[in-house]
Amino acid sequence: MGALPQLHGWAPPSLRLRSPRCPSRCLLGEAKRTTYVSPWRSPSGRSRCSPRFAVTKAASAEVEGLKKGIAELYDESSGLWEDIWGDHMHHGFYDTGTAASIEDHRAAQIRMIDEALRFAGVSDAPSKKPKRVVDVGCGIGGSSRYLAKKYGAQCQGITLSPVQAQRAQALSVAEGLADRVSFQVADALNQPFPDGQFDLVWSMESGEHMPDKEKFLSELARVAAPGATIIIVTWCHRDLLPSETLLPDERNLLKKICDAYYLPSWCSAADYVKIAQSLSLEDIKTADWSSNVAPFWPAVIRSAFTWQGFTSLLRSGWKTIKGALVMPLMIEGYKKNLIKFAIITCRKPA
Predict the structure, then answer these.
(1) What's this model's pTM, rounded to 2 decimal places?
(2) Are 216 and 210 in contact, with CB atoms under 8 Å apart?
(3) Distance between CA atoms of 223 and 228, rounded to whole angstroms?
(4) Which of 60, 186, 264, 314 is most buried by its number of CB atoms within 10 A?
(5) What residues have CB less than 8 Å from 160, skipping those under 6 apart?
(6) pLDDT score for 310
């Protein structure tokens, strides 16, 4: 889950200035003005992104600290998650109003993948199904292996966590998929792939970790082949009116979650749509699936109070324990309609 765009009204002290032309109104950092040139360019060679602020040395240190915290959190917690919940490190998709149990969580997690593919209109037809997939924020490779099996595709996953990358590769070898899936430690904001490499770009609950949402989506578009589908499933805050900011208690709640899960400030699904539009991406769609994931966090909390969950939690380390302590805040955020579980899909022009 999932690795500091805008949390309206809150950001760390070193990240308080904003670019006046950033389509997502993201907070970018104290810095002098420069021009950001997107690696994905139009045929004319002109950048499709707007001018923005360069990141200062202090802001770079903030980002590096964030990345280090994300890597260490998942180095610590991935084994615990796998022991209890399996190899899919993301929410499950449930029918609205139903309860979730540990027994049916895996089916719900697989359903989340299938619902995202369906929403994006990814075809199963032999001539149209994706053949090259990138899994951005791959965890221990659950989505990559599922997509490789479903489509017969070649999948490459990236994560900030060396432990995750090693475990993802080991599981793939055990499942006989070593020739179709591979994993490496890499930054989603500076991906080690050439332009136009993939016909399905997949990000399942990693966008919330990205300290620059505009750069994040620009990189997804850069590595996408012409006509490729981009799928982002991520945590957002509620949409805001143009003149609106989050309330103080909302900012405080999100800050506690940010501190525990090594998240930068949040943005809304509407912010993602604006960024996609600024990049001239097409067929942009979004939906709020908050009601469909509502049973997930109560089920995670119940699993933590089993003997296996409790003893594993104590062994995993302080970062994991700190994350467990704020799980009730995720439930509170959903109930207050502050936190939104969003899907955003789009297509790179052919």
Answers:
(1) 0.82
(2) yes
(3) 9
(4) 264
(5) 3, 67, 70, 71, 74, 185, 186, 187
(6) 58
